[in-house]
Design a protein that fits this description.
Radius of gyration: 20 Å
Structural class: mainly alpha
Largest sheet: 2 strands, antiparallel
Number of helices: 9
Helix content: 55-70%
Shape: globular
Number of strands: 2
Distance between the termini: 61 Å
CATH class of the domain at 29-34 and 44-141 and 175-197: Mainly Alpha
Order of helices and strands: HHHEEHHHHHH
CATH topology of the domain at 29-34 and 44-141 and 175-197: Four Helix Bundle (Hemerythrin (Met), subunit A)
CATH architecture of the domain at 29-34 and 44-141 and 175-197: Up-down Bundle
Length: 201
């Protein structure tokens, strides 16, 4: 079999149609969720954060679940970071010891909460998103054996993360469910925090 063979346009179109048919039901339900969470009011937003948000939505719609989680996180981290870049200036400091661009998402959330910029409910949701993202972004070697199912679900090891994607029934938790939570948080908080950034209610 020639791995480098050229595909005719008709063959490519047929493959696309087959893929679309298989994915239709899932995409329909994912689009339904996006539309149910959509904030219909207009809001200003930083260009980069807005692009991340649109990509998070697209990832969810097409079923790229890990990418949905990571892009949802990037959306809100960039929203907070850009707020502090404007407030503190380019190269500004979030605190005496930390530049805005060096701050972790956790530090940005805590600063925003401590400064009264976001509510405690918003901070809780942002921390939840951070916890959803961490295992995928900071995957580690396998840990000790004999862990409880509860411990496995929270673990960051590569085996657990792989099973969330390829065999979620084994753990009772899936990348899809975590992506659903992440996009729901993003769809709720991105418009709200963006309005707060620009002084709109």
């Amino acid at each position: 079999m020639n791995k480098n063979r050229e595909y005719a346009d008709e063959e490519l179109i047929k493959l696309i149609r087959q893929s679309n048919e298989r994915a239709f039901r899932g995409r329909k339900e994912r689009l339904r969720l996006l539309l149910s969470k959509e904030d219909k009011r207009r809001f200003p937003a930083e260009a980069l954060a807005k692009e991340y948000y649109e990509e998070a939505r697209l990832c969810w719609y097409i079923g790229a679940f890990v990418a949905t989680i990571l892009m949802s996180h990037l959306t809100l981290e960039e929203t907070l970071r850009s707020h502090y870049r404007r407030a503190k200036g380019v190269g500004g400091r979030l605190s005496k010891h930390k530049k805005v661009d060096e701050a972790t998402f956790n530090e940005l959330i805590d600063q925003a909460l401590g400064g009264g910029f976001i509510s405690s409910n918003q901070a809780r949701a942002l921390h939840k998103l951070r916890r959803l993202r961490n295992p995928y972004q900071h995957t580690q070697d396998m840990r000790k054996t004999g862990r409880s199912l509860q411990e496995l679900r929270r673990d960051r090891d590569f085996f657990v993360q792989t099973k969330k994607i390829s065999a979620p029934a084994l753990l009772g938790v899936s990348a899809e469910n975590e992506a659903r939570q992440a996009i729901s948080i993003g769809a709720s908080l991105f418009p709200a925090i963006s309005r707060q950034v620009w002084g709109f209610k």
